[in-house]
Design a protein that fits this description.
homodimer, about 200 residues, alpha+beta, Methane Monooxygenase Hydroxylase, Chain G, domain 1, Alpha-Beta Plaits, four-stranded antiparallel sheet, two-stranded antiparallel sheet, 8 helices, 6 strands, about 60% helix, about 15% strand
């Protein structure tokens, strides 16, 4: 992977981790917290690869000076990842929230959810543009984990596949609906009309 | 400020810092790097306030246990901010980029820019919805600094004021145009037709 793409990947991973980590805390979401842990492992692996490649590539003091910047960038990415992991750990171990925290979680109708697309799900083999999930369910896909790769900020052309892990943000109602759609328990036609009208 | 709003502010600041810090590196932008430094100071101030408030609020061991989580969250935010600052410092001190870095910056027509709205600028006292900067210049406002406050992810209803500091992402051409629009050196009517057509 070129350095440019490496840097862009690090940026995307860092941004997603920060979003997911705070969302995990705000919504007390173990799902989001677990995805942060997965991402942190990937950042560590990436950092390790960068160190190896830089050591092999350095042929002179001049080379070394220039590659040092890359190592420093990777270190910063790892620090961010560790901090995000600290937030995720709070949620996974189950922190005892001050009463004010509880109010935060209970008063909001917002939520973050993680679903896996089953083979039988109508979501599989359709693009986000075709599915119009935001319009129909109020849920927005913020990232997709496919095997060990991530798709950041998916758009209307992004096609969903069976076994994709989706992270979505929206409302409680929408989250429950998405879980059913993803598992194949219900289809797009089943979406209650009241919900669709509410979203309009 | 309630804990909920405090957490949301920390989340917004962390996300913006990570975006700006990586963008500063990718585009070798001292402007973006300087804004990261400003934000890092604010995170430090916020962390200090949280520590003070938590110490005053704790009346029992039970209280203390619950407020500990808040202190840990603030510590994580500060770690993220420090890592972002490390990236910004690379750009400000001027790192000697490996030839591959140079290619990244030169081949891309993308850029990040910071402008201050002059009293004489047409941008002042208009909403982003009215100005349609994305359509007309290809530049998107990602954040606005107004005095010591930040507006994150502004939308079409956000009104711009004189002395606002805007951070925008887009193309080189668009960035130059925005600097002229912000300083009052040119007006919206002056935008070259070729640029508008290109953006359509």
């Amino acid at each position: 992977m070129s350095i440019k793409n490496l840097l862009i990947e690090m940026k995307n991973m860092s941004e997603l981790m920060v979003d997911l980590a705070y969302s995990a805390v705000l919504f007390n979401s173990k799902d989001a917290a677990e995805e942060v842990i997965t991402l942190e492992n990937e950042v560590n692996s990436m950092n390790y690869e960068i160190k190896k490649e830089s050591l092999v590539a350095a042929r002179s003091y001049e080379d070394a000076e220039k590659l040092t910047a890359l190592l420093e960038i990777a270190e910063a990415a790892e620090s961010m990842a560790n901090a995000a992991k600290d937030l995720a750990d709070l949620v996974i171990t189950g922190f005892k929230p001050h009463p004010v925290f509880k109010m935060v979680m209970e008063e909001s109708d917002k939520s973050i959810v993680r679903v896996t697309i089953d083979e039988s799900s109508e979501l599989a083999n359709n693009t986000l543009g075709d599915l119009l999930l935001v319009n129909r369910t109020g849920m927005r896909v913020i990232a997709i984990r496919r095997g060990v790769s991530w798709i950041y900020g998916p758009d209307k052309n992004t096609m969903l596949l069976a076994n994709d892990v989706l992270i979505l943000k929206g409302t409680y109602e929408g989250a429950e609906l998405l879980e059913k759609l993803a598992s194949g328990a219900c289809s797009l036609e089943d979406i209650p009309e009241e919900l669709e009208e509410e979203l309009e």
